[in-house]
């Protein structure tokens, strides 16, 4: 049985030896494969398929692309790729290009037979994947989403394919997928493969940002970033730390729940130290700020507590507002005013999710400026410095703004409070006074 009907391939730019070679493979050629888009990923996938003997029919908007890659079968339109394929792999840039390739008299759907499987190798948003599948359904064409990584290994059978779709369609496409990927993972229903790829990309780009902030902090303190790289690679050569806590939560949820509060204290302390260093050196660390603010959620600790636990919540919020260590210095026997400060002001107001701590701080700074109390301004500014919420440049702008809105005398008090905080701040906590 021939792999490609003569009447369908007679007009192609064909290497006849390659066709005969593919036919000699016999059962190994079915299902027949097509590749549309011969960039780094699509071209590499096609090369990998040919290396395994599954000679794909290919198409690219650049007619010379197939020849440059040494590919044997080049079709003049996407429709003709679909006509001679059982599985078509789309490796174009985005959803707009996917639709362009599918539609029209020369598109995939024009040449498709019922039962064709189209695998989307492009990274699309999950709703876009579902929309494309709906568009293909009336033609009897099934869509799989197939995220792939790493792209630079496409030509060497070195990628991992993350597939979403129904079991039968994945089973039918599996021989083709397995011929270009070193591992094929069926992640779940349609959209699951793309969701896995997107999540993987979040890890990649998020870790790049984390590395950028870490290197900026180290460099600001006089450490060559290459030293940081060497230390991290030596301490964790396999990168296991990235998934350490997630593995704990997935594999040992009870142990993770038990250890969570202790880890949270360490995490808060260390991230607070990072914010302190960043504020001192004028380094922007938004990821550090988010990591600290969302630490409990990261560790799976539910912070919402019943109303009778507002004292504990208030003490924890005090530490977040003014720096770790303040709560430990609160006396067990508290005056009514101090008890109200802990339980209500911090346990119920500062702890509300509607505004960030930084936003609440700015509100308090504005209100405090109207009192003309440099000592209270100092308290808030030191808390902001400890948390890395405000830089020296931003404090200068705040002082200027408040001179005009709070009056020149009060603005002078704000300046005095800011100066005192900058001069005395060494990264520790500072106790609030007068119920701040």
UniProtKB/TrEMBL annotation:
* Enzyme Commission code: 1.1.-.-, 1.1.1.60
Q: Which UniProt keywords apply?
A: Oxidoreductase
Stretch forming the signal peptide: none
All copies of the 3-hydroxyisobutyrate dehydrogenase-like NAD-binding domain together span 191-294
The residue stretches assigned to a coiled coil in this entry are none
| Pfam families, alphabetized | CMD, NAD_binding_11, NAD_binding_2
User: What name goes with this protein?
Assistant: Dehydrogenase/reductase
What is the organism of origin for this protein?
Mycolicibacterium chitae
Q: Which gene encodes it?
A: garR_3
């Amino acid at each position: 049985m021939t792999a490609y009907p003569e009447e369908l391939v007679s007009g192609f730019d064909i290497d006849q030896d390659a066709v005969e070679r593919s036919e000699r493979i016999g059962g190994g050629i079915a299902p027949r494969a097509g590749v549309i888009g011969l960039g780094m990923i699509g071209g590499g996938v096609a090369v990998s398929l040919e290396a395994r003997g599954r000679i794909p029919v290919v198409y690219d908007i650049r007619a010379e692309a197939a020849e440059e890659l040494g590919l044997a079968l080049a079709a003049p339109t996407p429709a003709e790729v679909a006509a001679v394929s059982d599985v078509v792999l789309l490796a174009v840039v985005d959803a707009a290009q996917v639709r362009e390739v599918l539609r029209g008299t020369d598109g995939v759907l024009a040449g498709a037979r019922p039962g064709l499987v189209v695998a989307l190798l492009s990274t699309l948003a999950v709703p876009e994947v579902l929309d494309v599948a709906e568009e293909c359904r009336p033609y009897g064409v099934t869509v799989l989403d197939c995220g792939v990584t790493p792209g630079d290994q496409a030509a060497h059978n070195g990628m991992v394919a993350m597939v979403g779709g129904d079991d039968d369609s994945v089973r039918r496409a599996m021989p083709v997928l397995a011929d270009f990927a070193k591992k094929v993972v069926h992640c779940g229903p349609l959209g699951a493969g793309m969701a896995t790829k997107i999540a993987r990309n979040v890890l990649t780009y998020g870790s790049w940002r984390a590395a950028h902030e870490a290197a900026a902090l180290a460099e600001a303190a006089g450490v060559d970033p290459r030293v940081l790289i060497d230390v991290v690679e030596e301490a964790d050569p396999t990168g296991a730390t990235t998934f350490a806590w997630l593995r704990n939560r997935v594999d040992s949820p009870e142990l993770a729940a038990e250890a969570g509060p202790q880890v949270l204290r360490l995490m808060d302390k260390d991230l607070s130290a990072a914010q302190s260093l960043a504020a001192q050196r004028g380094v922007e660390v938004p990821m550090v700020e988010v990591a600290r603010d969302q630490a409990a959620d990261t560790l799976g600790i539910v912070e919402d507590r019943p109303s009778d636990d507002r004292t504990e919540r208030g003490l924890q919020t005090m530490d977040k507002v003014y720096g770790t260590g303040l709560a430990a210095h609160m006396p067990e026997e508290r005056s009514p005013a101090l008890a109200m400060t802990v339980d209500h002001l911090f346990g119920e107001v500062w702890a509300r999710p509607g505004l960030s701590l930084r936003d609440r701080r700015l509100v308090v700074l504005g209100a405090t400026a109207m009192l003309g109390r440099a000592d209270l301004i100092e308290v808030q500014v030191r808390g902001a410095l400890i948390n890395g919420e405000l830089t020296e440049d931003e404090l200068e702008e705040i002082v200027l703004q408040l001179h005009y809105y709070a009056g020149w005398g009060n603005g002078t008090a704000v300046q005095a409070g800011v100066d005192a905080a900058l001069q005395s701040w060494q990264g520790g906590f500072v106790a609030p006074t007068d119920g701040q």
